[in-house]
Write a structure and sequence with these properties.
This protein is α+β, with helices and mostly antiparallel strands and about 400 residues long. The chain contains 14 helices and 13 strands.
Amino acid sequence: MINIIDKHNCVGCRACEQVCPKRCIDMRVDPEGFKYPEVNSDLCIDCHLCEKVCPVLNELKSVKPLMVYGCKSTDKDIQLASSSGGCFTQLAKAILQEGGLVFGAIFDEKFIVIHSSTDKLEELDKFRRSKYVQSDTQNSFALVKEALAAGRKVMFCGTPCQIKGLNLFLRESFPNLLTIDFICHGVPSPKVWADYLKVLKQDIGNHMKLISVNFRSKAKGGWHKFALEFKFANTNTTEQKTIAQYPGENVYYQLFSQNLSLRPSCFKYPAKGLKSGSDLTIGDFWGIQEAAPERDDYNGISLVIVNSDKGHSFFNSIEIDKFEVNFETAVKSNPSIFHSVSEPVKRRKFFAGQGPFTKRRLDKFSGMDLYGRTRRHIIEMILKITKR
């Protein structure tokens, strides 16, 4: 049976829970806000299926990419509304137009990130854009299997660990399944996210209700200088307010980029190096300025790594502005394809405190408090002086 002793050895994909024939595995939230499987040993029949579908315990072969592309949607509205070039939307639209089903991460009504599905084009916008929080896959693997068995086309998008978990859960290949993972830095704690939103609401006023979140808004500085955007509406009037901050100004993003809020498994990622079994890997084409500067319109370019014949065939069938690139050039500015981030020394201390993550606690560890801002300002001044 699954027995998590070291939390670095669980990605929280829920494959073990969903494959269990006796339903004796429950996902429990730990003090850091991450979910881990807990087995009811009285019900367990030692079938070991939970171990056979675990993405940490089982290896999949690393693939050599068939092709690598840079691309963007031919619809500028889609490109601007997307985190990068709009590739996810174009792929999803093609699946939906064939009567298929699309699975991906969305915000629920409380802005908790979960995996959900749709077969409607008008619902596709909520699946679009990056969400820097670990998504709860819920029972989506089982729903994928059910849809595939019914003969429906299915597209599932998730982290490399989630895709690896899904492939192991299914235990066979399906011609009507398209799996897409994305270049992943790591997944932050849902607890840190929830507490951050509470702090944000306290700052703006309890009469204001959060109505939308965009981690990668291009409205303030474009794709190269994106902003985190939070929109609020007054519950008593028609007033609306938008908070837009660059990553260097935002506490939550700083905790993410410094790896403090990430899940322990992110530091030994079992699906790095194109080992998830995905058909396509997508992400931002960072480094486009060197690789193909003439293609950079500052509105966003997607990077697409084609990992299978099925992925290649499907990608070539969609309407998108694409150009072929060299793999070594593409990965040069995307180290997260192959390498896990380092675990910070102060991460344990960050999560050691009791109770919620208060504004003071978030500011202190992100370096956004007065001490941190002063220290950063002094360092910047010293660097300017030494460069003269």
